[in-house]
Specification:
four-stranded mixed beta sheet, alpha/beta, 3 domains, globular, single chain, five-stranded mixed beta sheet, 358 residues
Length: 358
């Protein structure tokens, strides 16, 4: 049976390092407060007006291509996962295609919005394309430019201190080796509590989920009457109340994450006929060091069986899994024949896992 294998991986993080002490200069927080709750010490921020989500993705993609032994021109299909795209539309896939200089090939580009589990979702999609023989070189990218959309005030500190910028990429190719490649992927979602972790405004919901302009406000700002020409994309009310920043109910998200992480890992292991003790390296989405440590204890894994880098990069959402995977591989912690498990949980809620025989 044809399987897909990860033939090359790469990552990129911007040069600028932002410490907890740096953030304490613009909001009421401290290094101790941040580390105690998240484990984060530093994160990287991109260069304003110079770097974007797609440009960072392209840098990671070039490294992955080189390690896979292919030129960007040989890419058959692009899957780009992000929650912080360059534009509302079009998506980052075509922008990165342009950045890589391969627009002449007219390859397909797919953008997915699965937030923290985005890369694992993208990997699963790529796996299907490769296994069916539709494509031979699929580029999967997870990239985020969080620093351009965070609330750098005390009001937003619970969210802002967590996130950083970066990108990771992988090239998937077919393999006839039954002992190598992606063994299984598991994808789940539950939209019941979608607003517990969300970036609601600006959006096309017209205030359905949150705020609708009162008629007096509409008249004050010269907007058309309600139900005449729809709602306003972004309003003064949203601006005044900081509603155009991401929001999160941290404790609720934490409780859901520590439940779903182990569940989706055990589900994949069961299908493959394996046990947690068979895992050589677990790469969890870098949401919170406390979550990763909890999952590690649940699975009874040693420290050398889990790769955490949130201390240095913060939460890079869709980029966190490929960045951590690449770092672990570069450090010699992932070798041929190893069983690698990827797992993620995030906004939506969505959660996912993948088992890979390296």
């Amino acid at each position: 049976m044809m399987r897909s294998k990860i033939a090359g991986i790469g990552y990129y993080v911007p040069e600028r390092v932002v410490s907890n002490d740096d953030l304490s200069q613009v909001m009421e927080t401290s290094d101790e407060w941040i580390q105690e709750r998240t484990g984060i010490q530093t994160r990287h921020y991109g260069k304003k007006h110079e770097e974007t989500t797609s440009s960072m993705g392209a840098k990671a993609a070039r490294v992955a291509c080189e390690r896979a032994g292919i030129a960007p021109e040989e890419i058959d299909f692009i899957i780009f996962a992000t929650l912080s795209p360059d534009y509302y539309f079009p998506g980052c896939g075509v922008l990165m295609q342009r950045e890589l200089g391969i627009t002449h090939k007219e390859v397909g580009a797919l953008d997915i919005r699965n937030q923290c589990s985005g890369f694992v979702y993208a990997l699963s999609i790529a796996d299907q394309f490769v296994k069916t023989g539709m494509y031979k070189n699929v580029l999967v990218v997870g990239a985020e430019m969080h620093s351009m959309g965070l609330d750098f005030s005390t009001r937003g500190r619970n969210v802002t201190v967590i996130f950083g910028d970066g990108a990771g990429a992988a090239i998937l190719q077919p393999s006839e080796d039954p002992n190598r490649g992606i063994l299984t992927t598991k994808l789940h979602s539950d939209g019941t509590y979608a607003e517990k972790l969300a970036f609601i405004n600006p959006g096309a919901h017209g205030g359905y989920h949150q705020h609708r302009l009162e008629e007096g406000e509409r008249q004050e700002y010269g907007y058309p009457p309600a139900d005449t020409f729809g709602e306003i994309f972004i309003t003064p009310h949203m601006m005044a109340n900081g509603q155009y920043y991401p929001n999160m109910e941290g404790q609720f998200v934490f409780k859901m994450a520590v439940q779903k992480f182990p569940e989706v890992i055990h589900e994949a292991l069961k299908e493959a006929g394996l046990e947690a003790s068979d895992i050589n390296m677990l790469i969890p989405h870098q949401a919170n060091l406390r979550i990763s440590q909890f999952v590690q204890r649940q699975l009874r894994l040693r420290d050398d069986q889990v790769w955490n880098n949130i201390q240095r990069y913060g939460n890079t959402t869709a980029a966190s899994v490929p960045i951590a995977l690449t770092e672990a591989w570069e450090a010699g912690k992932i070798k041929e024949g190893d069983l690698v498990c990827l797992a993620a949980f995030g906004s939506g809620f969505t959660w996912a896992s993948a088992l890979i025989r390296w």
